[in-house]
Amino acid sequence: MQAMPSAEGVGMAPLLSVIIPAYRAAQYIAAALDSVLAQTFKGYEIIVVNDGSPDTEELERALEPYRDRIIYLLQENQGLSGARNNGIRAARGTYIAPLDADDVWAPEHLAAQLAVLEEDPSIDVLYADARIIGDAPEAGRTVMELCPSTGEVTFERLVTRECTVHICVTVCRRETLLRVGLFDPSLQRVQDIDLWLRIVRQGGRIAYQRRVLGYYRRHASSLSSDSVSMLEEFLAVLAKAARDPYLTAAQRDVLKNQSVVERTSLELQKGKRAFLAGDGEAAVRHLTAANVQRKSLKLTAVVMLLRVAPGILRALYRWRDRQVYKLKTQA
């Protein structure tokens, strides 16, 4: 890994380190960096980790105007977790603020989060809300509108998704991240949920500041856009958590129950994908498996139509899509 420090990379350590992994991010990186440089709080360093990106030449051109304000790390591809981990290891700040290269912050993000963390040393991770931007149907809404956090962040509520800790608007204590072992490089998605589970399982505290302090970009190439892969990875995280020998009986129960819920959702998503791909046999198989748990009359009817009249079901599906599109355009 090659490190290329900025002119500000020496001297007194900053209070906070901003970690930005970059992979195929050349078109977005300037907006992310501009949002950091626009922060009202200024006691930070910026570490950009080029994770062996195929667009390195274009990325480095985009970074050129910022080179005296950033620490630039160039490494062979290790995935998102590896890039974040190497950035955290290189960081000098007491606090870590992760920022994906295609997301941006509101100018008060760091100041607002640090004010709470400095006031309350018991908080290990503080998160906020983010507004969705980009070409997704959810653009304009906030993460918490779609996945609201309810109550104190506990192991159980993270497992059941009652609490959604969105990484692009978190500020974390670096020593906490190091203590629990950083992000798991074996996970391609939902590495953050795995990390939050380990933090609370080991007695750490995660708190929520109910303010919109960032902007989360959704687009077709986002890792989060593949619902099947996201569910498969979340199930892997639950399986990993279940291997902890020190779990309580209640924690084991919630993991077992949620795994059933998530596997059912996975079968539904696989069934939908197979149906859209024209594979009626696979769609029937996956939807039938989902209905073992759901026991839904609607799903039973869908499976029946798939078996006896798939053309009618496709016509109904296309009609529904037209109605949804019409409602969106009239809104």
Q: Give, in order, the helices and strands.
A: EEHEHEHEEHEHHEHHEHHHHH
Roughly what percent helix? 40-55%
Order of strands, main sheet, comes to 1-4-3-2-5-8-7-9-6
Identify the quaternary structure here: single chain
The largest sheet is: 9 strands, mixed
Please state the overall shape, judged from the principal axes of the Cα atoms.
Answer: globular
Would you tell me the overall average pLDDT?
91
By DSSP, the count of extended strands is 9
- Rg (C-alpha, Å): 22 Å
Cα-to-Cα separation, first versus last residue: 50 Å
**Low-confidence parts:** 5-9
Beta-strand residue fraction: 15-25%
Give a structural overview.
The chain is an alpha/beta fold. Helix content is 48%, strand content 17%. The chain contains 13 helices and nine strands. Strands 1-4-3-2-5-8-7-9-6 form a nine-stranded mixed beta sheet, sandwiched between helices. Helix 2 links the parallel strand 3 and strand 4. It is globular and about 75 Å long. About 2% of the residues have low confidence.
